[in-house]
User: Fold this.
Amino acid sequence: MKVVILGSGRGSNAEAILLAQEAGQLGRARVVQLLSDKPDAGILALGERFGVPATYVDPAPFKTKLEGAGEERFVAAIRECGAELIVLAGFMRVLKPVFLAAFAGKIINLHPSLLPAFPGLDGIGQAWRRGVKYAGCTVHGVTAEVDGGPIIDQAIVRLEASDTLEALTEKIHAAEHVLLPKVIARLSVQKA
Ligand code: GAR
Assistant:
């Protein structure tokens, strides 16, 4: 199963997926392309290290959503690499109908909270400020409702009284790095 990873940031989840692949722990999935809407995103630097094509795609004209010409450029890039699964790993743009229709049922997103709690921006900070005792992360199917698609799997972390926001952030990231590769591996086997 060919996989494309889309990210806007440091790419630690893409790195976890590629490490799982190197270790033979990604089932029948194979990452064939990394794409970013930010030319200097850390995720693009992983391409050379892991021998996977990594490409910046211009997302213009919008700042926070993918629509219009930028959306069409992303759709074309994904079609070109033949991906059967599109993994959003820190891709910080709202997807719109053209993209969603092009890859319906094939897009998954990682979110740093136990959805449906704390959707949207800064899921970790939202949970922290609310004073939860358990937090975590979610992998879900992507639909037009932001962070509202079907939940595929989740991982839970417990907050200790001594935990700072930084400690919680680290715990959630560590949980994400295990959860997302595991879900991809499982989906690849189910689809085979
Ligand atoms: C991850 O924590 C992911 O859950 C979050 O962005 C981070 C990306 O980190 N995604 C969202 O907040 C989406 N709403 P990474 O670039 O190191 O993988």
